[in-house]
Specification:
The structure is a homodimer of 336-residue chains. Chain A is an alpha/beta fold and 336 residues long. Helices cover 46% and strands 15% of the residues of chain A.
Chain lengths: 336, 336
């Protein structure tokens, strides 16, 4: 198992990816890594950690893609940055199973599109968002913002691709909802009204119907399908509402010394409030529809997150996620 | 000033509308009401309160439109319900200034469309949502769900109509944002990318650019413009995120007796958490683009809310809101 890791991706790079990589290598004897980042720093850390040289290769890179870089142009403007070299390595080498990075999502997506390409038959690659549910689980949404204007068949493909991913995660018959403005079949815009029967009548999907934005976190489905515009609006609005209330409560429990005394009685419980979000942020997700396995983990990932993400990627590769997605798409050819 | 009030609209009907009406009549000597609801109940309450008979009329109705009724069909299936008779009265009588109701939004909207009609030139009537901001103010969004598939000119009209409303509310140059997935002009779907320059180049509008769902509650604009699908997704997702965090915090501050002791130190502050939402829910809003003044107040309105809503409606009527909306639309004729 050989995975490329972007050592300069994420807020805590390069320390967090390096530490995570070392931890993952120590734990998984069958893992090999191609580390793309500053060679001297990586070499020093790996030698110090006593990692055998046969377990890793280094592709030297000094520059990172930033959130301020235009995501579609980084391959041209920063051809030697770690992410560009990681994609090039993924493209060139046959012996590589996957690429894991915590760099900007938009750049990861355009790297997939322009360097690696889509699985034949896939109309549009899609982004997955991972959100917490009230029952302590997770719910995924796709497309989270890669495709603004979608045709009905794109959404059907998003559902099929994410369905394979969720099955690899161990969910036998993922419950799939369609983001709309009412539960009944007739509710929604032209797009969702066209997509509804397509999802319902597809024997490979466990479609539960429309789902509204205020019900998604109830955990009544495992996957929410949407066009990328509404999906992105959904994810950001949810965040906006959550932060708004969170700030109000924080002020209420700790805005004065008097209230802080009260918070002493709630300390552990208040600490737990963040957990569902932390849990959701910790998870990584593949870029759906890419010809090779490309996995994005959160920009705020710490060493532990990189270590567990590497293990997740191993699972995806071992379970042949890309091949399964390809098979699911090929099983139902869709006209443009 | 003569206003029709749906006495059977809202969760606390008929008591809350009746009490609110009595309070408003007592406070405003120039107000007259046409009350649509159960005649004996209304008469008894009004006589008991000592309201002069010249101040009110009653149109008898026993049935209400429910949330479970199909909003587009109630005029046919419940022709004698209070809302249907209220719309009929608004249509028939020349001496009436406005109609205020707390019944289901969808039904209020179809009443406007099928009984009263649009202002000439208005392509589509639109719904306003009112949301709290972090700075303690309010922000409005339109369309909140009346129009699923929108052409660019619809959104421009939504902006123009709501702009007049906000000016009537005393905001001199309402700051208008366009709901999208990124701040830059190029971000969004085909619709928002087409609408952006139209809003920017309109001299009657104070357009501040795109706004993302997680920024709306920051209070950086007074109005957010959107198609009805994304707008509805936005409002519901925001609510979903807010409730999710609210539940987590409630559990943290009162899930056990020990934590409840802590909450004693925070009692007043915790009570304040709800205030911004209460404030937003208390506000009423006109149905934009309707030929006559139709105002919807929240389904959970209490007597006090009905009283203040009646005063708000008086302001809208006095300020000639409908005429101003008509003038704003006529000032810029748009092709279909």
């Amino acid at each position: 198992m050989k995975i490329i890791l972007d050592v300069l991706g994420g807020d805590a790079a390069p320390a967090a990816p390096i530490e995570g990589a070392i931890a993952a290598l120590k734990k998984n004897a069958d893992l090999q890594l191609i580390l793309v980042g500053p060679k001297p720093t990586i070499e020093e850390a790996f030698q110090k950690a006593g990692i055998e040289e046969s377990r890793y290769e280094i592709v030297h890179a000094e520059e990172a893609v930033l959130n301020t870089d235009h995501p579609a142009n980084f391959l041209r403007t920063k051809p030697n940055c770690s992410m560009a070299l990681a994609f090039q390595t993924l493209k060139d080498r046959e012996d590589v199973d996957a690429f894991l990075g915590a760099g900007p999502t938009g750049a990861m997506l355009s790297g997939c599109i322009f360097k690696i390409g889509r699985i034949p038959g896939v109309k549009r690659p899609a982004l997955l968002a991972t959100l917490p549910t009230k029952s302590g689980g997770l719910v995924r949404l796709t497309d989270a913002g890669a495709n603004m204007d979608c045709k009905p068949e794109y959404l059907v493909q998003f559902a099929k691709m994410a369905n394979e991913y969720l099955k690899v995660l161990g969910i036998e018959k993922p419950r799939i909802g369609l983001l709309s403005v009412g539960m009944e079949e007739g509710k929604g815009n032209e797009l969702t009204k066209t997509v509804f029967p397509l999802l319902r009548d597809d024997p490979s999907l466990n479609f539960i119907g429309n789902i509204e934005g205020d019900k998604v976190l109830d955990g009544i489905c495992d996957l929410v399908v949407s066009d990328g515009f509404a999906g992105n609006v959904f994810v950001k609005s949810l965040e906006g509402g959550a932060y708004f209330v969170s700030d109000l409560f924080k002020e209420a429990v700790s805005g004065t010394w008097w209230r802080k005394i009260g918070a002493l009685f709630q300390l552990k419980a208040l600490g737990n409030v963040k957990k569902p979000f932390k849990y959701a942020n910790d998870s990584c997700a593949p870029l759906l529809g890419c010809k090779k396995l490309v996995v994005k983990c959160h920009g705020k990932s710490k060493a532990l997150n990189f270590a567990s993400a590497l293990e997740e990627v191993m699972t995806y590769a071992r379970e042949h996620l890309v091949e399964k997605v390809a098979a699911a798409i090929e099983a139902t050819p869709l006209g443009e």
